[in-house]
Structures are given as structure tokens and as C-alpha cells.
Write a structure and sequence with these properties.
single chain; alpha+beta; 2 strands; 41% helix
Length: 106
């Protein structure tokens, strides 16, 4: 495997979440718990890649990889609809504050 392939694999792996400091893990998980609500059915409108950008551009956000966001979602008890996809989808409510700017609780 080429080095760039390994890097791409790492940045999309949920294990990359473990590379964050404890402080950053806590800030990211607090944001997820506050801004993303669960539901029973899959939401295919918003992927892990799109959701990570919501976090990065929100107040107090910082750069994270797609894999770090996936790992954080797992840590917050959100399971992917299909973990074989590159960009995961989750069972999240369209009524979540993340989709209604100005309603973020952090």
C-alpha cells in the first residue's frame, strides 16, 4: 500500500478518534450530545463528512478528520447505518439543532 493510501485509510477510520486529546474528545462529544438527536430511522441526507464540517464551523469547533468524527459518534452511542461506506450515515433527527443554525447549545 502506498503511504498516501495508508494516510487516507487512517483519516477515515473511527480509531483515529483515539488520537485526539482528552479535552478535544470531551468538547467534540459534548457538541454531539447537544446538537445531534437520535431517531429510529436512518438519515441519508447528512453523512459523517458533512456533519464534521458543521462541528468545525460551529463556535468552539476545531479541525477533525472524518474518522475522528465517526469515532466520536460511536463514543456517543450512535451506530452507523453501514460501516462499509466511506462516509457514514446515522439514525439522527432532522430536528437536531445542528441543522438549525443559531440553536447550538454550546
Amino acid at each position: 500500500m502506498y503511504e498516501e493510501d495508508l494516510t487516507e485509510k487512517r483519516i477515515n477510520s473511527p480509531e483515529d478518534y483515539q488520537g485526539l486529546s482528552d479535552e478535544k474528545k470531551e468538547r467534540l462529544c459534548d457538541w454531539i450530545r447537544c446538537n445531534i438527536f437520535p431517531r429510529k430511522t436512518p438519515n441519508h441526507e447528512h453523512s459523517s463528512y458533512k456533519l464534521k464540517h458543521f462541528f468545525e464551523h460551529d463556535k468552539g469547533g476545531f479541525y477533525i478528520t472524518n474518522g475522528q468524527f465517526k469515532g466520536a459518534m460511536i463514543a456517543c452511542s450512535f451506530e452507523p447505518v453501514n460501516e462499509n461506506e466511506l462516509n457514514w450515515h446515522f439514525r439522527i433527527s432532522q430536528k437536531s439543532p445542528v441543522f438549525h443554525r443559531g440553536l447550538s447549545c454550546l
